[in-house]
């Protein structure tokens, strides 16, 4: 495993990089962001599933840098919206949309939906590509409800409106170490690491 201690995270999202490195800490791994490498081409996320996008990112980055790369694609699936925003979560309100614009659009669409029908889940698919080896893919999910209004200042994305009934809190109200116990990314990561062991 010593040759795999460093892995390039196929993202420039510093929120994700921080989250991954907290998850990696227990395993002696260190993730580096794409921002640390010159001239890495943008990967176009045009897959229609989280797995397709995660795998595409990992393959293209690993091939370009000749290093182990971890691609992730994650998003929010809302049952009342037939699984939307799904793979379009980050750009739900438009290509340049902020997190707040995205969750505001979501709340607007769910305005007339009663609480018990606001079931949703965060889903994350991870793809680890090590040059010369078969890709490893792992998926995790975190179930919850879409709250009627935002609360909390931690996290990013849809965290302020994602309510976890058993904790009676929004995702954005959790401390990073609490989030890492239950998040979709943490669950996908645990599965990935089990395979690697």
UniProtKB/TrEMBL annotation:
Pfam name, any one: Ham1p_like
Function: Pyrophosphatase that catalyzes the hydrolysis of nucleoside triphosphates to their monophosphate derivatives, with a high preference for the non-canonical purine nucleotides XTP (xanthosine triphosphate), dITP (deoxyinosine triphosphate) and ITP. Seems to function as a house-cleaning enzyme that removes non-canonical purine nucleotides from the nucleotide pool, thus preventing their incorporation into DNA/RNA and avoiding chromosomal lesions.
Assembly notes: Homodimer.
Record's cofactor remark: Binds 1 Mg(2+) ion per subunit.
CC per GO annotation: cytosol
The keyword Hydrolase is annotated on this UniProt entry: yes
Binding site for Mg(2+): 73
Listed GO MF terms: dITP diphosphatase activity; ITP diphosphatase activity; metal ion binding; nucleotide binding; ribonucleoside triphosphate phosphatase activity; XTP diphosphatase activity
Active site feature: 73 (proton acceptor)
Record organism: Brevibacillus agri
Protein name: dITP/XTP pyrophosphatase
UniProt entry keywords in alphabetical sequence: Hydrolase, Magnesium, Metal-binding, Nucleotide metabolism, Nucleotide-binding
Stated family: Belongs to the HAM1 NTPase family.
GO biological process, one term: purine nucleoside triphosphate catabolic process
InterPro entries xref list: dITP/XTP_pyrophosphatase (IPR020922), ITPase-like_fam (IPR029001), RdgB/HAM1 (IPR002637)
Keyword Membrane attributed: no
Required cofactor(s): Mg(2+)
Enzyme Commission designation: 3.6.1.66
Chain sites annotated for binding substrate: 11-16, 74, 156-159, 179, 184-185
Catalytic activity: dITP + H2O = dIMP + diphosphate + H(+); ITP + H2O = IMP + diphosphate + H(+); XTP + H2O = XMP + diphosphate + H(+)
Top-level EC class: hydrolase
